[in-house]
């Protein structure tokens, strides 16, 4: 049950242990900060409603700090499991020296969202509360940049670095490695607010894209870069929801004037068909960048 024919612990059990351990670490480190944030807000607003509590948990500075600590804790636990359970060096998970692939990933993620934004703007599927020349900078502009850097590292380390490597080391085919890691990535987003069917499909597809980047470059740097700017440009540059979460962007965007199948509605761009197209284009661009390797 626990071991395969070669006498190795089955990859499914190792992955389950990793997911449980990192989740517990994240909760233990982030929960105190979340509770403190609610207590502080309740002192400012004695009649704190459930909606206000959700807003505090979703994006207050203290909440972001707490979530960031949770992500760091999860990364630390995952690295320890990799060393003592998988018995491998961190570099073998895809963390080689900093690569130009990181810059390429950052550029591709940002460009993908910029293209979607301008298509929606020119087709009048969105309206802007402030002009492109009048961005609304705030503390959230920096806080969310730091937060999404941590998210990019955490999720790519987990779903690509750890899960894909564990599946590969246990003799699974490349097809199984791609699909299983991306399915787990999609399932992890099922509880996000305003979740939609196309949104989960696109998250599965972008999981496949990240897996492809990781496989072709033999490094986590390109998917990490893409992941960071894909999220950040959605929510904190252009003001779209990110996988259903509240945006704090440089621009205020109204998606209610457009078609949900294009804009993604309240789930964000990942719930729209334009994201599907950009993800597919991402495979082509990645192949072009890595052809000579």
UniProtKB/TrEMBL annotation:
> What highest taxon heads this organism's lineage?
Bacteria
What molecular functions are annotated in GO for this chain? Answer: endopeptidase activity
Q: Which InterPro entries match?
A: Rce1/LyrA-like_dom
Q: What keywords are assigned to this protein?
A: Hydrolase, Protease
The biological processes this protein is annotated with in GO are: CAAX-box protein maturation; proteolysis
Q: Where is the CAAX prenyl protease 2/Lysostaphin resistance protein A-like domain?
A: 140-233
The name this protein goes by in its record: CAAX protease
Q: Give the species this sequence originates from.
A: Niallia circulans
